[in-house]
């Protein structure tokens, strides 16, 4: 379980790319998917995300975690939108096709479902990009890449430490959870949902204290070694850009520009299949 959200060293084309390349790809990818609501563009991006999952050889157990996280936030988002603004899709696509009546004032329309489909595709595009970035990028090499991009090395080092501690936080969470279950506090699927949420939330406080203790130890150690004294530093894990990096950077830039052009060329970022 400790490796679900941590870097795993593998020999794949994605792992061999520079952290700088993956950072630029991640930023451009997320910005493009956030700006566009063109279903055709989102479909292509979703297909590319699936291909990247296959190329990076991520374990099925890890993919299952991503799907669960996406499903959880998507359900919350859909419920909130449907309850507060049930005809938002109709407003966007300027038509209303009622499929069946729900609660008063909340008819289920084809436009609303199509809007939800686009949102679902966005989740399955952005979340895998974040996940792939985390599990294929060495934290030390990522810090060097951030510094290469002009980010102060102190900031890059802080971010790399945060990424490096993700598996440790997972380990602490499971240790505390197991300790609670050993005392007879049920946290598995046998307990009611509200009980599970309440009991899992109670883990956050000891987990927070554990994280603060780790931060204090690391910050004291870095301060004793004079970290941050000089304006520049060298990097043992720095990786130079290769031909593959340049190819990926150029391809990503061209794709994102083309995707945004297709999205906004008619002045509306929503693809509307409901107008003839």
Oligomeric composition of the shown chains: single chain
For the largest beta sheet, what order do the strands appear in spatially? 1-2
- End-to-end separation: 51 Å
Uncertain regions spanning at least 5 consecutive residues: none
Biggest sheet statistics: 2 strands, antiparallel
The radius of gyration over CA amounts to 22 Å
* Helix-strand sequence: HHHHHEEHHHHHHH
Question: Which structural category do the helix and sheet elements fall into?
Answer: mainly alpha
What fraction, in percent, of the residue positions are helical? 55-70%
- Total count of helical runs of at least 4 residues: 12
Total number of beta strands: 2
Mean pLDDT level: 79
Please report which band the strand proportion falls in: under 5%, 5-15%, 15-25%, 25-35%, 35-45% or over 45%. Answer: under 5%
| Structural shape | flat
Briefly, what is this?
This protein has 276 residues and is mainly alpha-helical.
